[in-house]
Amino acid sequence: MNINETNDAYLDGIAVKLSDEIYFTHRELHAAFNRVQDATHWKNPIDATITETDSRKRTAIHVAVRFFTGSVPAAEVLGNDQYRFRAAGYYQTIGA
Hints:
Layout: H1 8-13, E1 15-17, E2 23-25, H2 26-36, E3 46-51, H3 55-69, E4 74-79, E5 82-87, H4 89-94
Antiparallel strand pairs: 1-2, 3-5, 4-5
């Protein structure tokens, strides 16, 4: 299944717990990951620049990258609410 091809019931039905206070639904993680995933293939390394003012949405990107790829993202603050996210991606993380 392509990361972009999931059904609505599945996306709404799963919650991922980050800590005692923060939960994300699969739908939230899916949306966050779509903002930074490689355009060619979602399993490739991640190097994306986004504009985001909402700290929960930035946190969702961190969690989503770990959830979908197993890699740990690095976020660089560029200023003016711009952030650059980089991560090894799924293929490199599993050693493919």
